[in-house]
Write a structure and sequence with these properties.
- The structure is a single chain.
- The protein is mostly helical and 276 residues long.
- The protein has one domain.
- Helix content is 81%, strand content 0%.
- Helix 3 packs across helix 12.
- It is globular, with a radius of gyration of 19 Å.
Amino acid sequence: MTNPLSSLIALYHEALCSTGRSLRRGWIAMLALVGFAAVFVVVSRIAGPLGMAGGFILGAANALLVGATLHLIDQARSGLRTLQFQDILDSLGYYFWDVIGVGFVLWLPIMALDFGTQANPYGQFLSSACLVLLFILLNPAPEVIYQVRHDSPLDVFKTSYEFVLENWIEWFLPFGLVMLPVVLSPTGLREFISLSSRLGRGAGLDFFQLLILPFTVLGGWFSYLGFPADAYWILAILLTPPVAMSILLFRGHLFALLHGSSRRKRLFARGFDPGR
């Protein structure tokens, strides 16, 4: 019987190989990420002075762009053809209501959390702890939206929660490895908690957070490797779209390999399948 470590290595090897193939098919999605980011910046500047109405506009723009990004990732992950420019236009509107629904269901308790902890001397700690917990339990929500049939945002939450409980080692180990230089830096733990808290607020469905995570990872690695500060920020900006695309595709393939399976089933399959 294959031991757990070799099974884990084989799992990541399969996900990485699939990610490479998907990158070749879906490279144009990197250009879409750049274009979507530019659109979101423009919408943010227009919506900023509009108060509550601006918030609704920004939320709709975020849902539109995140949903389109998830659809492009799904097409690159599961399709058999190279994506074209028309696929970017066709992706607009996909998963819009899914992202809106998840965001709305989270918005009310998070708003209550923010108000409830303002007067508490330990409020900042409690708020961060709750948001980090949300980040952990709802981490696979983007993949659940485009890979698992669901009828409501609560189904998304339930599936994400159950998936994390079953596969937390396999799912979070790659994240821990790529974040290692960030965590080990002098302010690493504080930065990691801050990043996790921001990601937890939107269950990974905030468009800018899709880019902030790879940007932070790149900055941490370049700093760890001794790159000059003036140079590595420019390099991190240039590399953020392909790295973001790679992370999203890897997550998608890893989720597909893990969902509906179990650690015991994977060990059994790899131990008795001569092709693996």
